[in-house]
Every structure is written in C-alpha cells, then in structure tokens.
Design a protein that fits this description.
Number of strands: 38
Strand order of the largest sheet: 12-18-19-20-21-30-27-26-23-24
Largest sheet: 10 strands, antiparallel
Radius of gyration: 28 Å
CATH class of the largest domain: Mainly Beta
Distance between the termini: 48 Å
Helix content: 10-25%
Strand content: 25-35%
Length: about 725
C-alpha cells in the first residue's frame, strides 16, 4: 500500500482474507489462485517454472520519475546535515565495534561491565539502522521525525564515545587520574590550559599517516609522542573562531591501534610550525581582466594548484609526476525553483524541478592563503557583490606536505575541500560546479550503493532534462578523458550531474517551500535554514593512478581517526609512558591494501549457529533468553576491486585468519557464514538459474575455508565468518 495508509494489520488481513477466498472460489473462471506467501515461497514458485532469463547487466534504474516533471532526484541531497551525521555515526560505530572487540579479547577480566558496554554499542547500532529507513537518510521525513533520528544518533554517539574513553582509561590504569572527555571531529571547544593528551584511534586495518585537527587556545604549541619525541604539527588561525587556533597533528598509526600525544602550550620555544596568513583584495569576478592573468601557485609534492589573482578563483591543477595540467575552475550556483503548484512543477524533499539553468551566486570573491611547512589552506569567500559584509558560501582548500620519513602517498594525492553553505534563500538549490578542459563527452561515473561504479551518460529529454540527469553520489563520482581522471570523494551523500562537457556539479544544499497539499499535510516542505559543512576530496591523475588511490582514499575519508581528549591536572600522576608505540591493545591488525576489514565486532547474539534450528525454536516458543554471548566474534573481509580494474590489486587475495587475528588471541575455530551471518554457508543450496547469455554457466560463491583458517577473497567479494578464540 501507499505511505501512511495502513495502521491496523488485523483489519488488513481480515479484508484480504475475503478477497483471497472469493478469488480462489472462482479460480476456474479467473484462471488464477492466490495464497499468502513469504519471499522464499515466491522465488521457489518462480524457480520451479525452469524459465530461461535475460541478464539485465549491472545497470540500475536511476533516476526515477513518476511523471514528466517529477524526477525523484532531490532526495539525493535533502537534509544534508542528517546525511552527514548518519554517515559519521556509522563510522563511529565501526570504530567502536573493533575497539570494544579488541578490548574484550585482551582484557577478559576488566573492570568495565561488558553487558553495559554492549548496551552502549547497541544504542548506536539501533540508531544507525533506524536512520537507513527510506524516509530517513533520504531527507523525506517531517522535521519532528528528523529531530527524532538526530536525537537517537547523537545519544548513541555519546554512548560509544563514553565507552571508548572508559576503555582507554581502564587500559591505562588511570581511572582516578582526572577527567577524560571525548570529542569526535569536534571543533567546539579548545583544549584546556592544563597538561593534556590527545588519543587517536585508527579504525582501519591498514597503517595510516594522516592529519588530525584539534582546537587549542595558544599559538605556541608543542606536540609529543609516548616517548616524549616531538611530533610534526602546524598551528594556525581558525576558520570558525577568533578565540582559538587550529592545531594539525601528523599521526602515524598501525591498523586497529591507537596512539597518545601530549599537547602543551610553550613559552618562548615552540615545536609546532605556525601557518602564516596572507589576505588578498576581494575581486569583482564580473569585470576580471582575462588578458593580464596573475597566477598564484600553491604546491606540494603531488600537485601544483594555480589561483587566478584577477578573480581569486582556481585556475588549474598540475599533476606533478606526469606534468599533466588540467584547466579547472569552480563556482557556486543556485537553481531557482518554483513553490506554487498553480504556476508549474515544484521541487520538494523528493523531487527536483529546475525552472531554468543554474545562476551564479557571487559577483566578488575574497581570498586568504594560510601557508606553513605541513599544510597550505586556501580560504575563498563568495559575496553577492563587492561591498557585501556577509557571505553564504565559502571553500577551504587544503594541500598537505609530508616530511621525509613518513608515508605520505594518500595525503599528498588529495586536494581536500571543506565547504560552508547557508543559510540559503527560500526555493534555492545550491551546487558547486567544477569545470575542466577534459573532453569527457558529458559522461559521468558515480557509485551505486557505494559499491559499484555506474556509467551515467547525459541524456536529452523533452522536459526536465536538468533534474533527470542527476544521480546519487553515495561517496564517489568522476569524469575523465582518454588519459586523465578527476575524482570526487564525499563523506556524505549528494546529488551529482554533468550538465556540460568537462563539467561535474555536486548539489550540496536545498531549502524549499511549496503548497502541494500532500507536502503541507505531512510538513514535507524542507524549509532547511541550516549551514552545512560537507567535505570533498579531489584526486587528479591518470586512470591507473586514481584506480589505485580512490578505494583506499574513500575509506580513509569515511573512517577518519577517532580523536579523544584527556586532561590531567598538574598535581595528579601522569599516565605511564607506553614503550610500544603502535598499540597498547596488542599486535596491530592489518590487511593488504586491496582488502578492507569491513566488520570486526562482538554481536552478543544468543541464537544458534544452526539457523533452521533457531527458526524452529522461535516458532515453538523455545527461544532462549540469556546473557549476551561475548565468545562469538563477527568478521567480514571485503575485496575492494573489480575484475580487471587493476593488474595487481584486482587479483584474488589469500588471507590467513589465524595470523590476521593473532593480536586478539589464538583462533580456535572459524565458521563461514552468509553475508548477514544468519546461515552456515555449508548448509546453503544455491539455485542454478538458466540465462540466455550463459546457458551452461552457474554463478556461486567461493566458500572454501581450509582447516588452518586460510581463505581466498576474490574481486568484489565479501566473506563473512564467526571466529572463536581459545580461553572463552
């Protein structure tokens, strides 16, 4: 049925019973019989027909349109703040799961109550699952329901942050040494003026080198590792506050491990580099002199980015290894949309219907460049005219320079951009358009469900062409010519399109009101007056190089390190220095660069490993209510690459699970499961479907697991296991 139509199931079944009875009594006349069925019953009936099927290929059905002017492409961007918080919460849950699992395995007799800890994790598991509803993360709910999602997510995040902070204190035997507080990606408050430390957890199963940012109250700062050695860092004026500074710390952390860094204000001497600011005159971009271009270079080891000082806009990017230069400009535009159903098609939470082409938002651009030894930040402010005091749009572009002795491959190869957009005027849809001289033939590539790349050729329609060429960018989008690719990686979902050759535009924010009765009835008018702060990483290079970089870079963006702050007052004992730099959990957990440790958690499930037995016990009312099971560890390993995508990284990978997990203990047994963990794969009987293209071919999973825990993971495959350790 339709949304919001059915509330009382027993009434529905009573009514359907009458229909079923009537149809079945006249089945000879109607030529059909009807019964209630599960999805399994339905597929069993279809399979038993033994038909030959056409393969649709991997293309999806997007975008959806219900009428010529009703393209359902607005929800890709609606409620951008909720989309960002949902992704951040999912990332924190991912980190909290592995952090807790390692802790339980290494500290079975700890002082932290495992059952309470599991409840804290479950509160975020629930909130992250709940917001996946098709009227949740899509932004197509009413404001009060959106607030409910946000409250549940924030409550779950608070619980997991509190759990992670408790674990760190417990592992350092420092429960009474002072106050610990945790702040994930927070820029709200500066570190206080006492001895303090920053704890940084790497939730990925790779060794990472990256920067984390914390707010501090002094310009002269020193950062030191567990052994008291100086750590590369840069401090500079904050983009958000006049009373604090941004401190960027270069961290090197092994897989699923954490490091502690001391952060100290210094008098006279300093160890952190200071970023120096140069502000340039605001430029009128409508009267720029194109003949006398003054170009300002910003350079790191991988890129040279030129800015046009006549407009304060980006001019070009050169990839230094190949010396390939791409002309590249960026501008903010707005689609002006209609809100009156009497005057034409409308935009709402679901729909996008542009009145006309997008309109540039600014006539003047301000520029500030903050440069230091480790990072250069270019701050651009977009004004409606030359004399405006306030701006609605800003871009903060960062290029990183990694010192000798550090692995800076991923850091060097990204141009990080953070945007500030809003509050918008009513019935405006804000996009960032990046225009290049790449001959892309208006072909765009986006990820479908964050998993598989889809080709999105531009299609001309009789009406609503702009909106019907928008697609979801779950995380990845790119354009390319024969040699060069420009890739965009995002930390939340957006709508994306290519409205011209060499162009890619990302819809970043929407604010709408309309008088459609359905929308008014359910308060679905999206009057979103917020300021949004999305982040996109740009990667430019050859197809071969970007293929190698974007999978790992995308995960590095999604699962940025978790940063927690701890403060110890001067008269209390310091935390003991750890001699092991990589991990106080034990050995790090690392997988090869073409694999991703997708899940490492203790679900706490009580159900039987035999799913059929479990279902029978539920049906018979014999479901056991007992304490959570902390002995069963859920593990998923994913291959990141598709067949043929890269000559080396697309190869199958052999993994020794016992060796991989030795930092958690001695593996006693491994059971391979279906993707959800529900079924033992050895009990699954896969059907063989006949296809016209491959009449004799059968598609099936590889499920071989050797006795000694060695498995092979094939391209794009996800393997799921229950793992049991000795001594539990």
């Amino acid at each position: 049925g339709c949304d919001k139509q059915f509330f009382n199931a027993s009434v529905q079944f009573s009514n359907m019973d009458l229909l079923l009875d009537y149809i079945n009594k006249h089945s000879d006349e109607f030529g059909v019989a009807v019964q209630y069925a599960t999805v399994g019953d339905y597929f069993q009936a279809v399979y038993s027909r033994n038909l030959t099927w056409e393969i649709r290929d991997s293309q999806d059905f997007l975008p959806y349109s219900t009428e010529p002017f009703q393209a359902w492409t607005g929800f890709y961007t609606s409620r951008s703040t909720l989309k960002g918080i949902a992704r951040r919460a999912s990332s924190l849950l991912y980190a909290g799961e592995s952090f807790f699992t390692r802790y339980v395995r290494k500290h079975p007799a700890s002082s932290i109550c495992k059952y309470q800890a599991l409840k804290q994790l479950q509160s975020l598991r629930w909130a992250v699952s709940e917001v996946q509803h098709h009227d949740g993360i899509t932004g197509t709910e009413s404001p009060k329901v959106k607030d409910m999602y946000m409250n549940n997510l924030m409550y779950g995040m608070f619980n997991v942050k509190k759990l992670m902070a408790s674990i760190i204190f417990d592992m350092n035997n420092a429960k009474n040494n002072g106050e610990v507080y945790s702040s994930i990606y927070s820029k709200d408050s500066a570190i206080p003026d006492v001895d303090q430390y920053v704890v940084v957890y790497n939730p990925l199963a790779w060794n990472i080198t990256t920067f984390v940012m914390v707010s501090v109250s002094h310009l002269a700062m020193g950062v030191y590792d567990e052994l008291g050695r100086s750590v590369p860092a840069q401090v500079q004026s904050s983009v958000e506050s006049h009373s604090t500074y941004d401190l960027y710390i270069l961290v090197e952390i092994s897989g699923l491990s954490y490091r502690k860094y001391s952060v100290k204000p210094l008098n006279g001497m300093q160890s952190a580099f200071i970023g120096r600011s140069v502000k340039y005159k605001r430029k009128d971009i409508t009267h720029a002199d194109q003949q006398s271009q003054q170009l300002l270079p910003v350079v790191n080891n991988c890129y040279q980015v030129l800015f046009d000082q006549d407009t304060n806009l980006m001019h070009s990017i050169t990839e230094r290894e190949t010396n390939q230069t791409v002309k590249l400009t960026q501008e903010f535009l707005e689609y002006h949309v209609n809100g009156d159903v009497m005057k034409g098609p409308i935009s709402d939470n679901y729909l996008f219907a542009a009145n006309a082409s997008a309109v540039p938002v600014s006539k003047a651009v301000g520029l500030e460049v903050v440069s230091g030894n480790l990072m250069t930040e270019i701050r651009q402010y977009f004004y409606s005219n030359v004399t405006s005091q306030d701006y609605i749009y800003a871009v903060y572009t960062r290029l990183y320079t990694v010192p000798e002795g550090y692995d800076g491959k991923l850091l060097c190869h990204r141009i990080e951009q953070e945007y500030s957009i809003g509050p918008l005027e009513l019935n405006r849809e804000a996009v960032l358009r990046t225009s290049t001289n790449l001959n892309t033939r208006q072909l765009l590539y986006t990820d479908s469900n964050g998993y598989q790349i889809q080709k999105r050729p531009f299609k001309a329609y009789m009406n609503n062409t702009v909106a019907r060429n928008y697609y979801p960018m779950v995380q990845t989008a790119y354009i390319e010519d024969d040699t060069t690719r420009l890739m965009l990686l995002a930390e939340r979902a957006h709508g994306v399109s290519s409205q011209g050759n060499g162009q890619v535009e990302v819809m970043l924010h929407r604010r709408l009101w309309n008088n459609l009765q359905w929308d008014l009835n359910y308060n679905l008018t999206l009057n979103d007056s917020s300021v949004v702060r999305p982040v996109i990483w740009l990667i430019l290079g050859t197809k071969a190089v970007t293929n190698i970089l974007y999978r790992t870079s995308g995960l590095a963006l999604e699962h940025r390190p978790v940063v927690m702050f701890g403060a110890l007052s001067g008269d209390k004992p310091k935390l003991p220095r750890q001699r092991q730099q990589n991990s106080v959990h034990g050995l790090p957990v690392t997988v090869p660069p073409n694999l991703h440790l997708q899940t490492l958690s203790i679900p706490g499930w009580r159900y039987s490993s035999d799913h059929a037995e479990q279902v029978d016990s539920i049906r018979m009312g014999k479901q056991k209510q007992g304490d959570a099971d902390f002995g069963r560890v859920l593990l998923r390993i994913k291959h990141l690459y598709e067949v043929g995508e890269d000559p080396v990284l697309s190869q199958p990978v052999m993994v020794n699970l016992k060796s991989l997990l030795k930092g958690l203990g001695s593996v006693m047994a491994v059971e391979e499961r279906s993707l959800t963990g529900t079924w033992d794969v050895n009990t699954l009987k896969r059907w063989k479907w006949k296809t016209a293209q491959y009449p004799s071919k059968r598609f099936s999973n590889s499920t071989e697991t050797s006795e000694n825990g060695i498995v092979t993971v094939h391209p794009k495959e996800i393997r799921t296991f229950f793992v049991y350790f000795q001594g539990q």
